Amino acid sequence: MARSGILFVLCAFAIAAFTQKIKSKSAPGTLADSTAYAVPENIQSIIDKSCYDCHNGESKNLKAKTKFRFDKMHELDTKKMVSKLDEIIEVVDELEMPPKKFVEKNPDAQPSDEEYAMLKAWAEEQAKLLMN
Amino acid sequence: MKKLLLYIAGLLAVIFIVIQFVPSNMPENDSDISDDLLVTEQAPENIKLLMHQACYDCHSNQTKFPWYAKVAPVSWLLENDVKEGREELNFSEWATLDARKKIKMLSEIGEEVEEKKMPLKIYTVIHTNAALSAEEIELINDWTVKLSDQIMEN
After folding, report:
1. pLDDT tens-digit profile of A6-52?
2. What is the pLDDT of residues A42-98, one digit of tens each?
3. Which of A16, A67, B23, B139 has the fewest beta carbons closer than 10 A?
């Protein structure tokens, strides 16, 4: 079960990466806007562990994926990206995410204080880069 | 049968009177507009008018309370909506937000208005002039995008 889950996430990433590549080829204009958006590995692993299960296009959680999709971040224009990063900072500040109920069922998804801080610092830095 | 109906009506009337004595906690207005969105960003007159009509009753400290705002249970609904609206986004405190928040809020204004989530249906049913036409939605949207671009550049 867990293995197929991981496989699924990997596939989703591969597809996302692939479509991104096609997109950047066909629309070089949008690429320039988003070159500053980068997710280092340590941040990506926090996102994978704590956020991605619900916040991706294939998620069954309609509300979660309507509100925020990590697999779509690259496609957003700069302003939307800044907005989404601000949202990350907000939910981290208020410890809104991941939802308590989700953590009860998936205790591993709970980020540590340090991971929360890392995620926030990254989002702040990204937003700053994008706004310059 | 008639007696029963009368009894129920009487009971409802008593309940109605009693609930008027529940202490209200209506958010207060503040006439200070020095940090206001439309003032500080020098919004054009048509945007000012539109947003005052469609948004400002809940999303600013200048709520125009109607006479029934004091009558329970409507007052409870109003109190809740105004409180929540101001908490989520208060245009009277615009200038106190940092650039990142401003960009997020502008993007959200555009989204909410375009997806017709705002203004709330329950509000436009009564305040019919608050309902936005497709053209007005576009006006607001264009203005928020323009303002957001300006903030990004600074």
Report:
1. 555 555 555 555 555 444 433 333 444 445 678 899 999 989 898 98
2. 999 989 898 988 898 888 888 888 888 888 888 888 899 999 999 999 999 999 999
3. B23
Interface touch A80/B148, C-beta < 8 Å: no
pLDDT at residue B93 in the model:
95
pTM over 0.90: no
| Residue ranges making up the domain that contains B57 | 2-153
Rounded CA-CA distance B146/B49 in Å is 18
Phi, psi for residue B42 in degrees, rounded to 5 = 45, 60
- Smallest Cα distance from A74 to chain B, Å: 17
Where do the structural domains in chain A lie, given as residue ranges? 2-131
Residues of A in contact with B99 (CB under 8 A): 131
Q: What's the total number of domains in chain B?
A: 1
pLDDT in tens, B133-151: 999 999 999 999 999 999 9
Assigned token pair, B20: 């008027």
* Distance between CA atoms of residues B14 and B110, nearest Å: 45
Place of tokens 């953590």: A103
Query: Which residue on chain A is closest to B105 by alpha carbon?
Result: A83
Q: At what angle do helices B99-114 and A78-93 cross, to 10 degrees?
A: 110
Q: Tell me which of B100, B147, B148 to substitute to probe the interface with A (most A C-beta atoms closer than 10 Å).
A: B100
CB contact under 8 A, B107 and A83: yes
Q: ipTM score of the complex?
A: 0.73
Report the candidate in B105, B97, B83, B95 with the shortest Cα–Cα distance to residue B29: B83
Closest approach of A122 to chain B, Cα-based (Å): 14
